[in-house]
Amino acid sequence: MKLISLSAHFDGQSIQLDEPYKLEPNIKLIITVLPEQLPEREAGLWLSRHQLNKAYNQNDDYPLNAIKTPNPDYAGS
Predict the structure, then answer these.
(1) How many CA atoms lie within 13 A of 41 on its CB side?
(2) How far apart are CA 43 and CA 48, in angstroms?
(3) What is d(CA 31, CA 5) in angstroms, rounded to the nearest whole number?
């Protein structure tokens, strides 16, 4: 199964999907709780930033020869 993000909400008793989606029994899920009172766009930006921060961190080592087009304004080049 491919990775997919689904919008949902908690109704006080259980998590409810905002749109119908067929899920297989016992499928593993990851739930991300968004901060309260964020407009939908800000919540999406927050989630994107959070996921990017998880994917890339300061300990990643990318050699300079991996850069196809150098940025002359970058201080590290």
Answers:
(1) 0
(2) 9
(3) 10
pLDDT in tens, 34-69: 777 667 777 788 888 888 877 776 677 777 778 788
Q: What DSSP state is assigned to residue 1?
A: -
DSSP string computed for 18-31: SS-----TT-----
Structure tokens belonging to residue 28? 């593993």
CA separation for the pair 72, 49 (Å, rounded): 26
Looking at residue 29, its amino acid is: L
Whether residue 48 contacts residue 42, with contact meaning beta carbons closer than 8 Å, is answered with: no
Q: What is the pTM of this model?
A: 0.45
